[in-house]
TrEMBL record, chain A:
Entry's Gene Ontology BP terms: regulation of transcription by RNA polymerase II
Record's compositionally biased regions (Low complexity): 800-816
Polar residues composition bias: residue spans: 409-421
GO CC field: NuA4 histone acetyltransferase complex; nucleus
Compositional bias (Basic and acidic residues): 380-405, 685-695
Keywords: Nucleus, Transcription, Transcription regulation
Subcellular location(s) per record: Nucleus
Keyword Nucleus found: yes
Organism (species): [Candida] arabinofermentans NRRL YB-2248
Annotated protein name in UniProt: Enhancer of polycomb-like protein
Family named by the database record: Belongs to the enhancer of polycomb family.
Pfam families: EPL1
Domain Enhancer of polycomb-like N-terminal: 12-160
Region described as Disordered: spans on this chain: 380-421, 649-695, 790-856
From TrEMBL, chain B:
UniProt feature, compositional bias: Acidic residues: 116-125
Subunit structure: Component of the NuA4 histone acetyltransferase complex.
One of the GO biological process terms: chromatin organization
Similarity comment: family membership: Belongs to the EAF6 family.
Coiled-coil annotated residue ranges, if any: 7-44
Disordered: annotated span: 116-135
Name of the protein described by the UniProt record: Chromatin modification-related protein EAF6
Function: Component of the NuA4 histone acetyltransferase complex which is involved in transcriptional activation of selected genes principally by acetylation of nucleosomal histone H4 and H2A. The NuA4 complex is also involved in DNA repair.
GO CC terms: NuA4 histone acetyltransferase complex; nucleus
Keywords tagged on the record: Chromatin regulator, Coiled coil, DNA damage, DNA repair, Nucleus, Transcription, Transcription regulation
Keyword Nucleus: yes
Top-rank taxon, per record: Eukaryota
Cellular compartments annotated: Nucleus
Length: 856, 135
């Protein structure tokens, strides 16, 4: 059995208890164990109905019967009674006419029954009799006769109004509303009534009568009249009849309705209640879900409203479409009539309204028509011209003109024949303008471009023909613009900042390795982390920042500062120059296009280099000394320009002369060799000029320059880049630095947190102390008296031990339940409070202790 | 025309025809505008209902419990042109759209309109076929 919840609950095994005697079964006491077991299982069958309804009479009968059958007893087959649906009513065809023909597809239907049945009131025999007599009274006038449908409408409205307004009518049926009262309510449209939808739609869409596919055909092919007129005509009479019936029924509705359950007075025993409510416990909900439901309903309402308006628009569209079709039909009919009339009267022309015109496309007129028109125009003009020029022109020209008359208009326009007369030229131009009004430039002189090709005007494309040059130029412009955009964007990012980085706008990837001699073991290169730092940007520039950094001027947001990359001086603040410097990487730049001199151009765009480039030569000198010669590759103009070089640096520095630099093979380069070198250099000079080396101011300068030029204290590095100082790659450096910061921050945080925790603990301790003291005070007051002697013995100790006692007490807080320790602790506290006073004032401490305890 | 016709009658008729033609034109304009309005409103409606559903696809997401995390889990309802029952139920508008799309060759409507059109043609051919079969 699969359902343990119900089955298990019913046959729970009880615990064996000593208090209950267990029956002892013998074989003979049990008739048939197997059968009993079977039965037991049988009862576990799930009936499939609610627990409370398992008691139902018929169900029980069936269960019992089947159980008995299994046990072997012969029982009659028992059924749960169901309504008999086997009978066929033969006369049905007489009353119900089947007009339904099954469609080929599935029937899709979403309307409710209430939507389709029409008026819910059904006329019965009594009503029919009354209706007959009423109609007879009315006489022969059909207007005064009431159809059955109309009667039903009125009666239903009467009932519904009273049901709504007088729900407790059955308590006192005589208080039924009067006809006037009902009429007032009844003629106000009822919003909840499904028929109201149709009514509002009828008004809004202006369709009379509003009929849907769901509406039943009226019985005698006549639509019932509106309620208002019906009430006016028959209301009072029908009301009397209906009132009498309703009172007879003790206020219950005349037309039988389904008896629904009244939720306030549940009556399970009433067998006629239809659709009983099932009770189920409401799941507990949070308030949030409550509002959610409301919100969802609102959303739903909105959605439906939106959909309704859409549907309404669709309906409106269809109505308009119908009107449109009607209009079209009317037009057609009118045209037919007019045609007839025209034929009779013999009128010709004026046909433009009689034909349905295709929509004219405005940009492309009908070529044939235009040709025709143009030809006509030309003919007229030619005629006029011919008349004018008759006297002036010779016969030859005349014939020429005649020839041209027969040429098609386009050919004369595009033929490019040189006009013989000014009139003709004028004419040609006019034609050209007419034909190719949309074409510009080239089109005005068609002869020069397309001298031999003749196109009908309709086939000439409306495009401006472009040359390859313009396309290429556009492309170039586009690229330039894109680059300029990028640059200005880049500049925008720097807004408010001064960018000291190496040329932020024109990145270059001129990466070179250091001099070869740095690498001692090349085989380690792939595994060396240092190797990455061996690459450097070759044409790096140093900017002297001292000028800027020493300057106290604050660069505002608005300032755009430009720095001379070479000297580090502020050049100008050009607000107007929105574009950054634009180095031309490919060569010709539009900005420099006017500079014809190529070298000048390249000079201007050249990146200035702070470090001189050397050639190095290694050689072994005397005594096995290793020499490394350095040679300047190119004279740097920058050095020449420096103002402190009053005299020309000797040409010895250039080109072919090698300046020896001493270096020991293994030791790092030291400043010593440079000194000697400088001295060597200066010595030669001194010999010429005979000036004391150490007095010479210029020589000092010279030495300085020399040192600056040639000496490197460390194998080359960028002095501004701190990460290069210890030869560690940028990334490594960044990571290390980041890690350092992180650990530092973490430590800080940890420290702070630790402190917080400590503070918190201390606060807690203090609180506990306070509480303890308060508690202890009372106890101690009593204890103090009792233990006076003990206290006096300990007195000397307490003064010093007091704190220890307290802290011990607090730490033993968790072990408070121990019976003895708190008392001792408390005592200590009290005594500590009293402190040395107790010791000093000896005999009076008992009373004093009381006092302090109280006060605390 | 049984009654005697005259120039007067003819002019009257002509005037009437002119009037009704103008009226027809007016109606045409109104209709196109209405159809466009429907299309736009429908687009809005369908895109509004991406999360909770619409009357074409149903409101399944409504009953689902929408909590913070499951909001993203609920399947979004993508609407296609087949859902455009409001605007595309007009044959003239379908034709109109097709014209637009053939001109621009852009927009998502292209394929579905073509589809719709195919359907219509199918329907036509079916309706053409059935009587033949009956015969």
């Amino acid at each position: 059995m699969v359902l343990p919840s119900s089955a298990g609950a019913r046959f729970r095994q009880r615990k064996i208890s000593v208090k209950h005697s267990l029956p002892v079964w013998k074989q003979r006491d049990i008739p048939d164990l197997e059968l009993a077991e079977q039965q037991r299982e049988l009862q576990q069958f799930e009936t499939g109905v609610e627990k409370g309804e398992e008691e139902e009479h018929h169900l029980q009968a069936v269960i019992n019967a089947s159980a008995a059958q299994i046990q072997g007893a012969k029982v009659e087959q028992v059924y749960i009674p169901t309504p008999d649906a086997s009978k066929v009513w033969k006369d049905a065809g007489k009353y119900y006419h089947q007009k339904f023909t099954p469609p080929t597809s599935y029937i899709r239907f979403s309307a409710t029954v209430e939507d389709t049945v029409g008026c819910p009131y059904c006329i019965d025999e009594e009503d029919e009799e009354f209706l007959k007599s009423m109609n007879e009274e009315a006489g022969s006038d059909t207007e005064n006769k009431c159809s059955e449908d109309e009667f039903e409408l009125v009666a239903y409205r009467l009932e519904s109004v009273v049901n709504e307004k007088q729900p407790f009518l059955k308590l006192n049926p005589d208080e039924l509303m009067s006809f006037q009262e009902i009429k007032e309510v009844a003629l106000v449209p009822d919003k909840t009534d499904p028929s109201d939808v149709a009514r509002t739609l009828e008004n809004q869409l202006n369709i009379h009568p509003f009929k849907t596919l769901l509406d039943a055909e009226p019985t005698n092919g006549k639509q019932p009249r509106p309620l208002a007129t019906l009430f006016k005509l028959f209301g009072q009479k029908i009301y009397n009849h209906w009132r009498q019936r309703r009172i007879k029924r003790l206020g219950e509705p005349v037309f039988p309705t389904v008896k629904l359950e009244d939720p306030s007075q549940k009556d399970d025993n009433d067998p006629y209640v239809c659709f009983r409510r099932r009770e189920f416990r409401q799941a507990r909900k949070t308030r949030r879900t409550d509002t959610q439901g409301a919100e969802r309903l609102q959303l739903f309402y909105k959605d439906l409203k939106h959909a309704r308006s859409l549907l309404f628009m669709v309906a409106e569209r269809e109505v308009q479409r119908m009107e449109h079709l009607k209009q079209e039909r009317e037009v057609f009919n009118l045209r037919c009539q007019i045609k007839n009339v025209k034929r009779e009267l013999g009128i010709k022309g004026e046909d433009e309204d009689l034909v349905t015109h295709k929509k004219k496309r405005i940009p492309v007129p009908d070529p044939e028509q235009i040709k025709e028109q143009q030809r006509l125009q030309q003919l007229e003009r030619e005629k006029a011209l011919a008349k004018d020029s008759k006297k002036k022109l010779s016969d030859k020209e005349k014939s020429k003109q005649k020839l041209e008359l027969h040429l098609p208009a386009s050919s004369s326009a595009q033929g490019g024949k040189s006009g013989t007369t000014p009139q003709q030229i004028l004419l040609q131009q006019q034609l050209a303008e007419q034909q190719q009004a949309q074409q510009q430039g080239a089109a005005t002189t068609p002869a020069s471009i397309q001298p031999y090709v003749k196109l009908p005007s309709s086939k000439i494309p409306d495009l401006d023909l472009t040359t390859v040059n313009t396309v290429l130029q556009d492309k170039l412009e586009g690229i330039k613009k894109a680059v300029a955009d990028k640059l200005s964007k880049r500049k925008g990012q720097d807004d408010g900042w001064v960018n000291f980085t190496d040329d932020p706008y024109n990145p270059y990837f001129d990466i070179a390795t250091y001099d070869d001699n740095l690498l001692q073991e090349r085989s380690h290169l792939p595994y060396s982390s240092i190797a990455s730092s061996l690459y450097e940007v070759e044409k790096s520039r140093e900017i002297d920042f001292s000028n800027i950094l020493n300057n106290n001027k604050h660069f505002g947001h608005e300032d755009v500062v430009k720095i001379n990359a070479a000297t580090g001086q502020l050049m100008k603040s050009d607000k107007l120059n929105h574009l950054p410097e634009f180095y031309d990487l490919t060569g010709q730049d539009s900005d420099y296009a006017d500079l014809d001199d190529d070298t000048h151009h390249s000079d201007k765009n050249k990146l200035s280099i702070s470090e001189t480039v050397f050639k190095l030569r290694k050689r072994v000198g005397r005594n096995g000394k290793l020499w490394i010669d350095r040679k300047r590759v190119k004279e740097d103009s920058w050095f020449k320009d420096m103002d402190f070089l009053d005299y020309e640096p000797s040409s010895s520095e250039s080109e072919n002369e090698f300046e020896p630099a001493m270096e020991h093979p293994s030791s790092p380069p030291s400043p010593v060799p440079s000194h000697t070198e400088a001295e060597n250099n200066s010595m030669t000079k001194q010999e010429k000029k005979r000036i004391n080396v150490y007095d010479s101011h210029s020589d000092a300068k010279r030495r300085l320059i020399s040192r600056f030029e040639f000496d490197r204290d460390l194998p080359s590095y960028q002095p501004l880049d701190p990460s290069k100082l210890n030869q560690i790659g940028n990334q490594t450096q960044a990571i290390r630095f980041g890690c350092m910061l992180l650990t530092k921050a973490y430590d800080n945080m940890h420290h702070i947190r630790q402190k917080q925790i400590e503070q918190h603990q201390q606060r807690l301790l203090a609180q506990q102390k306070l509480q303890k003291q308060q508690q202890a005070a009372a106890a101690a007051a009593a204890a103090a008296i009792q233990d006076q002697t003990l206290g006096s013995d300990d007195g000397g100790m307490v003064g010093s031990n007091g704190v220890v006692g307290v802290s011990g007490d607090v730490s033993s807080k968790s072990s408070v339940p121990r019976s003895q320790s708190p008392k001792v602790g408390l005592k200590h506290v009290a005594q500590k409070q009293l402190g040395k006073k107790m010791v000093s004032s000896g005999p009076s401490k008992g009373t004093k202790g009381k006092a302090t305890a109280k006060s605390s | 025309m049984p009654e005697p016709t005259s120039k007067n009658e003819y002019d009257k008729l002509k005037k009437k025809l002119k009037e009704s033609l103008a009226k027809k034109k007016e109606l045409d304009k109104k209709l196109t505008k209405l159809e466009e309005d429907i299309f736009n409103k429908e687009t809005k409606y369908l895109s509004d209902g991406i999360n909770h559903g619409n009357i074409i696809k149903g409101f399944e997401n409504f009953t689902k419990n929408v909590s913070g995390t499951s909001a993203s889990r609920t399947k979004k309802i993508q609407f296609t042109d087949e859902d455009r029952i409001f605007s595309l139920s007009s044959a003239t508008y379908v034709r109109h759209l097709k014209k637009i799309n053939s001109g621009q060759a852009t927009g998502s409507l292209n394929s579905s309109v073509a589809l719709l059109d195919d359907d219509m043609e199918d329907a036509d051919s079916e309706s053409n076929n059935t009587p033949k079969k009956k015969k």
